[in-house]
Write a structure and sequence with these properties.
Belongs to the DMRL synthase family. Pathway: Cofactor biosynthesis; riboflavin biosynthesis; riboflavin from 2-hydroxy-3-oxobutyl phosphate and 5-amino-6-(D-ribitylamino)uracil: step 1/2. Pfam families: DMRL_synthase. This protein has helices at residues 33-49, 66-73, 93-112, 126-132, 142-163; strands at residues 24-29, 56-60, 79-87, 116-123. The chain is α/β, with parallel strands linked by helices. It has a single domain (35-160), classed as 3-Layer(aba) Sandwich (Rossmann fold). Strand 3 (79-87), helix 3 and strand 4 form a beta-alpha-beta unit. Helix 2 runs parallel beside helix 3 (93-112). The longest helix is centred in the C-terminal third of the chain and has 22 residues, at 142-163.
């Protein structure tokens, strides 16, 4: 179970997911080590809580590299989890990286029909990122939530397809 504090009733209840037998890849950037440690730990805990065993973890340099890694892996996994963090600075770099990573991950998910849990933090400062990283004292656990979202999406789509509904 996640150790995060829920900030409100808007967070969906995804407890009881069954991801046993699913092959799941986790793509995680390396920038901001403390935040990424929390996000990755949370994602792995979320997968484990859903019954996923032996997820594959792939580390890439930064958030800009998440889409190409997801594109390379999508056809080999039932679901993916993309984890990264971009902290606003004094240049437009923040906007370019956030936009490229978001559009790229979205494109991969839609094009390959592979559910991708979106765990890219886009924060104004380090404190915001740490508060969302699932670390001791964090109010949110976005890695956990992204992993659960990937399993929930795979399950929802698979259930509809298996029933023959269109």
């Amino acid at each position: 179970m996640s150790s995060r504090t829920t900030l409100g009733s808007a967070v969906p209840d995804l407890s009881g997911l069954n991801g046993s037998g699913l092959r799941v890849g986790v793509v995680a950037s390396q920038w901001h080590d403390a935040v990424m440690t929390g996000l990755l730990d949370g994602a792995l805990r979320g997968l484990r809580d859903s019954g996923v065993s032996d997820p594959v973890v792939v580390r890439v340099p930064g958030s800009f590299e998440l889409p190409v890694a997801c594109a390379s892996l999508a056809d080999h996994f039932d679901a993916l989890v993309a984890l990264g963090v971009v902290i606003r600075g004094g240049t437009p770099h923040f906007d370019y990286v956030c936009d490229a990573a978001t559009r790229g991950i979205t494109d991969v998910a839609v094009r390959t029909k592979t559910p991708i849990g979106f765990g890219l933090l886009t924060c104004d400062d380090d404190a915001q990122a740490l508060d969302r990283a699932g670390l001791e004292g964090s109010h949110e656990d976005k890695g956990y939530e992204a992993a659960q979202a990937a399993i929930a999406t795979f399950t929802a789509v698979s259930t509809v397809l298996a029933s023959g509904s269109s």
